[in-house]
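User: Please predict the structure of the protein below. I'd like the answer in structure-token form so I can feed it into my own downstream comparison script.

Assistant: Understood. Taking the following sequence of 165 residues as input:
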Amino acid sequence: MTTSFSCGGLAAIGALIVLTMCPVNAEAAPRLVGIAFTSSSVTSMGSRAQLPAGTTIYPSGVRITGTTGCPTNRYMTDGMIVAVIDYAGPPTAASLQVTRQPASGGRFEDAPYYIDLNAGRTLQTLGPIFANGAYSLKLLSGMQTAKSVGSSGGFILARSCPQPH
């Protein structure tokens, strides 16, 4: 008995049902667009959150200075950083690794965020991140196999945030 498998679907072999996964092709590979500062009203919606109209997306490599993105309330529920990811392929699994290099010293790799990517724009909360320093982001998709595709970027925080009241 010969059974052909199609990409991204279910195939039946007798009484056995198999889910087939497809590698992500380069044209549909997720792209790390940059970062944005949002409030907890956005981050609480998870990966299906939408950026409010007029939100600035900072491209990879940006250096954020002054009071840009600083929290303004004592609970620090605004100024939360999200990674902005665009993707045009079929649903897939992805991960986002954050490496922090605080201005105070050290290098720390956070546990990866695991993401279910669907076509369109996805936001992934990176926080809480408030400390100045360099932050590297590495996005991988395609079930982390030899055919994984990825995107990377980063940003530098060099802000002068006032203490929230």
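That's the full token string. Residues 1-7, 9-24 have pLDDT under 50 and may be disordered.
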